[in-house]
Each structure stands twice: as structure tokens, then as C-alpha cells.
């Protein structure tokens, strides 16, 4: 449940709907791509941060499952990411 997520929380597993997508940005002189999505479930919304090839897997309207995700906080906003040890699946 999104409303229960806390910054620095790991081992997050949830399924949510993708409701918006920002334009991907290139970082590290174009070596990496990063993109913010907004996902929601019945309890709330959170930013989902994806990198590189994961960005192209997800479209607005998809339902995604995050396994072993991690919650960060950037400029006061909670963000969920699959990170290095988690996975993202479109269901």
C-alpha cells in the first residue's frame, strides 16, 4: 500500500497503476537515462523512478509490479525505485 511507504524503506512489494510519465532525461553525459512516473493504488500516489531500459517497458495505463523496491526521498518527495536488487514487471 502506497500510503504506508516510508523513506529509506526497502523490500517493498506492490502493484499499482501508471498514471503519468515525465520526459526521460539523460545524465552522466548521456550514459544513463532516468524517468519519473506517477503510480497509484487505492491508498495514494508515489513517484516511480526508472532507469535506462526499464523506461521503455512502461506506458501510461499499465499496471506494474515492483518486487524488492526501495523508497528514497528527493527534495521532500517520496520516490519508489526497483533499484539494483529489485525488479519491475508489467502485469
The CATH architecture category equals Beta Barrel
* Discrete helix count: 1
* Element-by-element helix/strand order: EEEEHEEE
State the end-to-end CA separation: 17 Å
Detailed description of the structure:
- This protein has one helix at 53-57; strands at residues 12-21, 25-27, 32-41, 44-51, 63-74, 77-81, 87-90.
- The radius of gyration is 12 Å and the shape is globular.
- The chain is 5% helix and 57% strand.
- The model has no long low-confidence stretch (mean pLDDT 95).
- It has 91 residues and is mainly beta.
- It is built from one helix and seven strands; from the N terminus they run ββββαβββ.
- A hairpin with a 4-residue loop joins strand 2 (25-27) and strand 3.
